[in-house]
Amino acid sequence: MAATSLVPTPAKTPTPFRPYRRSSPAVNSADPNSRPNSLRTSCAANIVNGSPTALEQASKKPWPKFFESTIPTENAASRNRIKLFSGSANPALSQEIASDLGVELGKVKRKRFADGEIYFQLEESVRGCDVYLLQPTCPPVNDNLMELKIMIETCWSSSAKSITAVQSREPITARIAARDISRANHVLVCDIHSLQSIGYFDIPVDHVQCEPVILDYLASKGLHSSNMVVVSPDVGGVARARAFAKKLGDAPLAIVDKRRHGHNIAEVMNLIGDVRGKVAILVDDMIDTAGTITKGAELLHKEGAKEVYACCTHAVFSPPAIERLSSGLFQEVIVTNTIPVADENYFPQLTVLSTATLLAETIWRLHNEYSVSSIFR
What we know:
It catalyses: D-ribose 5-phosphate + ATP = 5-phospho-alpha-D-ribose 1-diphosphate + AMP + H(+). By secondary structure, the protein is α/β, with parallel strands linked by helices. The chain has two domains: 68-208 and 358-375, Rossmann fold (3-Layer(aba) Sandwich), CATH 3.40.50.2020; 211-346, Rossmann fold (3-Layer(aba) Sandwich), CATH 3.40.50.2020. It has helices spanning 37-49, 52-58, 91-101, 141-157, 174-180, 211-220, 238-247, 291-302, 321-325, 356-367, and strands at residues 82-86, 108-112, 118-122, 130-134, 162-168, 186-190, 205-208, 228-232, 253-262, 265-272, 279-287, 307-315, 332-336, 350-353. The strands form three sheets. The chain has a seven-stranded mixed beta sheet, with helices on both faces. The two termini are 37 Å apart.
C-alpha cells in the first residue's frame, strides 16, 4: 500500500478540511534528507568527493554492496503516516470515513473459530504509524468490545506509533471498558451518555458531538426557532437539550418529568414548559427500547404540540423500539449511523444521517494536531 503524505500546514490557523490525496513527496533542494534516495545518494557523493566530476568517475566503478536499502522513495515525506483499520461492528461507516479522508482501509484478516473466539491479524505493517481503529462498542456489545481489545493489542505489539480507538458509543460498563482498552493512546467517542464517564479513562479522550449533523438537517427542512421547542425527555438530559436549543437560535426549552419504576420502564408524570401549537423536538443521546421517548411524545401530543420529532445520535433499537417508534407518534425519527441500522429496522418515519464527514475531520485534526473542540463551537 502506497504511503500517504500527511505533512501539516505551517499556518497557525488550520486550513479548511480537504480529503487526503496521494501525492509524490515534496523535494527540498536545500535539505538532502528530504530528497528521494537517488537524489540523496548523489548529494552525499558530491559532499564527500568535493566535485560533481568525482561522482561521475565513481559511478563508473563497481561499488561493494554491504547493505542495499529497500526504503521506498516516498518514505522521507511520510514518516508520520496514518492507518485506518475497521472492525466488524460498523464496516459501512468505516468505509465512508476512509473515503472522506482519501485513504484506504488497512488490510486485515479476521475470522471466528468454531468455539466463537475472535481471530484478528494485520496484513500490513503499522510500525511508526498513527493507527485509528474504527470499532464502535454497539450490539453485540461484549463481542465488539473484545474485538476492539484484540485490535488494540495487535497494533501495540506491532510497534504502532500511536493507537486511537474510535468507539462512536461507549458501553454501559464504561469504567470496565476504559480499563480494558488502556493499551490505546487515545479514545474518540461520540455523544457520551455521561460526561463524568470520561474520568474513567487514564488516556486522553476526545468527545465528538454529533449535533452539527442533526442541526444541519433540521435547517434544511426549513424549521425555525420561532415555531419550535426543544424538549428533554428526562431531567438527566436537560444540559444536552439546553445546548441544542441554544444552537437553534435560543429556542424555548421544555422538560418531561418522569419517574422510573423498573429497568427499561418509564412512567411520564408531567411537562415543564409550553409546547401548544409548536413543533416539539425531543433530543436524547440514544434510543434503546424507545420507552422514554415514546412516553414523552404521547405527553407532548396531549399538551397540544403541533408535530413531534425525535433526534438521537445512537440508534440501539432494542425490541420493542421499532414497534413503538412507528406507531404514528412522530413526524420523523432522526438518528445517525454511529450504530448500523439493520434493514428490518427501517420504517417510513426513520431518517439516518451519516457522521462520516464529521468523524473524518476529527481524525484529520487529531492527526495534524489541530483543535477538535473548535468544530463544535
